[in-house]
Fold this protein.
Amino acid sequence: MQWRRYDSAAEFLVETERLLEENEAENNLMLGLLYQLKKSNRKGIYMAAATDKGEVKLICLMTPPYNLIMTVPKGSDYEEVVDFAIGELVYESVNVPGVIAEKNLAEYFSRTWAEKTGQESTFAMKQRIYKLNKVNDLKHTPGKMRKARSNEKELVASWLLRFISDTGEPALTKADAELRVAVMIEQGTVFLWENDGEPVSMARSARSTKNVAVVNMVYTPDEQRKKGYATAMVSNLSRLLLQNYEYCALYTDLANPSSNKIYMQIGYEPILDSSLIKFV
């Protein structure tokens, strides 16, 4: 078995894209990030693959300070290749803050990583990936969807900071959030649900792959919840995205049953359970 590091996302995709595209919606996080990285000059990205007799058996991607994303061919026996990968990561003294992968794969990696490094692990989030190809007809919700405007940068940034706090993602400063949001708004990827002239919910189109559009950053402030705004926001954005993509996909937190119920009402179907496990 061989372990190869990559400095270029373009080169990495040459080796891994075919395998990732076999389950494009399930691998939307890794694929979407790699397509973004291919267009940028960002440094310090960890990209590696384990191969055996010329076949890719495991793929790793990490964009510090975020977690290690890992995938293997669907249905494969992964214990041996995970053991091999951990040996390489330990040998290279790679700082792995956590792992995101299919549930069983993530759990096996975390147990073995703990044995090898002495680090303790903790479940940060049990997730589910959903896929949609048709939006169900739902009852009418007052308001309309529109793109966020440049003069709404501070509002969207404040919602982003609350979203990050709710989901446990690495913290951002207010200034960093506003810079990030300014780019999103300029790219036209942030959408708001507006009722009576007031923004009441948001969502974003992000990390699209060749056939799959990803919906994320779904947030409704506390005072506007339980009014159907998030459902209307996601259903309308998904319908818009399906005009150009075969599917939509999104991640959910299984600890939030209401959001999972909402997405299934819209027409999203579960395709994979995933876990985010952190190391301390």
